[in-house]
Structure formats: structure tokens, C-alpha cells
Amino acid sequence: MANVSVYNMEGKEVGTIELNDAIFGVEVNEHLVHMAVVQQLANKRQGTQKAKTRAEVRGGGRKPWRQKGTGHARQGSIRAPQWTGGGVVFAPVPRDYSYKLNKKEKRAALKSALTSKVNEQKFIVIDELKFDEIKTKNFQSVLDNLKVNKKALVVLNENNQNVVLSARNIPTVKTALTNTINVYDILNNNTVIVTKDAVAKIEEVYA
């Protein structure tokens, strides 16, 4: 099992913790990780694009000029695609881009993402995160103490409003609960900061 240091909010090492190899020490499957990221981004797409075909554009019911004798090419409608203001050929319509991954594939991808962060030494365990008041400056000082100056994902075991709201105004920080973590957020952030309680919950749920 991998041993990682546990820090307090002042950035001082206060102990170590053994991580479960079934979650934090698996063989990284890049293909599954890629599938999970693509699926999540696809599921976020609204799919609300819409353009009108020649059947839906208003007007164009009358033939613009007679078939022969004008010197122009034959035309049947001023709403044909080659006309300005005409319909669009194969126009996009609202659609659902989402699709599903098997539960085992999603869990394996999440474990691979967590393992990759542990291997890169970008997985920080903190003994607790508690604030007496909502203050962005307090949260920023914790990041400074942990020497985290890039994008960070902070994983909490429970929804602590003082912590969540203190972090909300920091553009490089995203907070998540153990039941809402996903592969994209883990990979999209340089560092993953997890409380000891959250580590225990993750091992309980995904082991």
C-alpha cells in the first residue's frame, strides 16, 4: 500500500496514511480514462442547435419565374439552399449527445485517475478543513501553506458550507463531495486535495 503524508491547515506534516491499492494503486487504463472523459463532455452538451430546412423557411411557394425563355437557370423556389435566405441542406436539429458507460468501466476509470494523481505526487491528504466563518482569504492561506498555486480539486466528505463558500471565489479551485467526484475534474485539475474523512469514504464506497 502507498503511504502518503497527512498535512494540517498550516501545511505541517502531522502523520501518514496508507492508501488502499485497490483504488489508489491500480494499473492505469488510459483507454477507459479517455472514454470516461469523452462521455462526460458529451453528456454536458446541450444539443440545442437548430437551423431551418427549405421546408421550414417562410415563403418560396411561388415559382420565381417561368421555366423557359428568360435566360435564367430554372428555379422552383426562392427558398432553395442556393438562394440567400434559403433553407440549409442537412440542417442541424436538437439532439441528445449523451450516452452511457458501464458501471464497472466508470469505476475503473475513476480508480485509474486517482492512481495517476498519487503516482505523480499530486494527491494531498489534509487532516481536516474547517473554518469558523466564510472568508476567501482563509482558504487561500491554506492553499499557500500547502504550496498549491495551480488548479486544485478539493474533495470533502460532507457539505461544509463555510469551506465551500470560502473557496467559491477562487477561480482555480473546485470543491466536490466524495459522491460527486469524476474523472474529468480529477484530470482537469493539477492537484487533488482530499480530507482524511473523504479518503476513508472513497475507500469504503469504491473498494
Automatic annotation (TrEMBL):
Part of the 50S ribosomal subunit. GO terms for cellular component: ribonucleoprotein complex; ribosome. Pfam families: Ribosomal_L4. It comes from Anaerosacchariphilus polymeriproducens. Keywords: Ribonucleoprotein, Ribosomal protein, RNA-binding, rRNA-binding. One of the primary rRNA binding proteins, this protein initially binds near the 5'-end of the 23S rRNA. It is important during the early stages of 50S assembly. It makes multiple contacts with different domains of the 23S rRNA in the assembled 50S subunit and ribosome. Forms part of the polypeptide exit tunnel. HAMAP family: Ribosomal_uL4_B. One of its GO terms (biological process) is translation. GO terms for molecular function: rRNA binding; structural constituent of ribosome. Belongs to the universal ribosomal protein uL4 family. This is Large ribosomal subunit protein uL4. Residues 60-71 have a biased composition (Basic residues). The gene is rplD. Residues 44-80 are annotated as: Disordered. InterPro entries: Ribosomal_uL4, Ribosomal_uL4-like, Ribosomal_uL4_dom_sf.
